[in-house]
Amino acid sequence: MMAAQPQCCSQLQPNGVHMQRVMIIGQPGSGKSTFARALGERTKLPVIHIDKIHWQAGWVERTTQEKTRLCHEVEARDCWIFEGGHSVTWGSRIARADVLIWIDRASALRFWRVLLRALYQRGDTRPDLPENCPERLRNLPAFFSFMWATRKTARAKMKLLTISAPSGCRVVCLRSNRQAKLFLDGIGKSPDEKMLKNTSF
Fold it and tell me: pLDDT of 144-198, one tens digit each?
């Protein structure tokens, strides 16, 4: 079951930009979940991880229809930080978002991060997953195969989403740890136009 929607949400102005519904995208290992939690701590907006929609306890995958229904339930709320995929719902999600954040990192870095995550958190359940979903080294080959097969197509889809974002949705692209830190550190301060302008590619 998804957490109940908060009764009210403050309309915050981090970085001089209105943030009430934040959509975060990026490929595996890009740092979406960690960034979303950090952003949630600073803004007090509720954070939704797609992996908690994709999976149930014990690595039981939900049906596509159930994932879509749960995504739409989140999108309808007044405020959220929603990180992750299920791209069939991206159209409705971005239509509701005030800000789209694309964390775009190099493939080599992402593979390295996923490997380290599996090694260091082996047997543990990450905070962005349901209970009883421990990291398993035996899952790595299949996951790496997926990451490799989708590395170009997934990035192209994300790039297209940023280009076609509605005019009322501010687009932010973060390509380094430094840019991510500057963005988070700038919450509540005057905007950095280089960071917050609608990104062109």
Answer: 999 999 999 999 999 999 999 998 899 999 999 999 999 998 886 654 444 444 4
- The CATH T-level fold of domain 14-196 is Rossmann fold (3.40.50)
pLDDT tens profile 50-71? 999 999 999 999 999 999 999 9
Residue boundaries of the structural domains of the chain: 14-196
DSSP string covering the chain, please?
-PPPPPS----B-GGGS-BSEEEEE--TTSSHHHHHHHHHHHH---EEETHHHHEETTTEEPPHHHHHHHHHHHHTSS-EEEES--GGGHHHHHHH-SEEEEE---HHHHHHHHHHHHHHTBTSB-TTS-TT-BB-GGGHHHHHHHHHHHHHHHHHHHHHHHHT--TTSEEEEE-SHHHHHHHHHTTTS---HHHHSPP--
Task: Report pTM.
Answer: 0.84
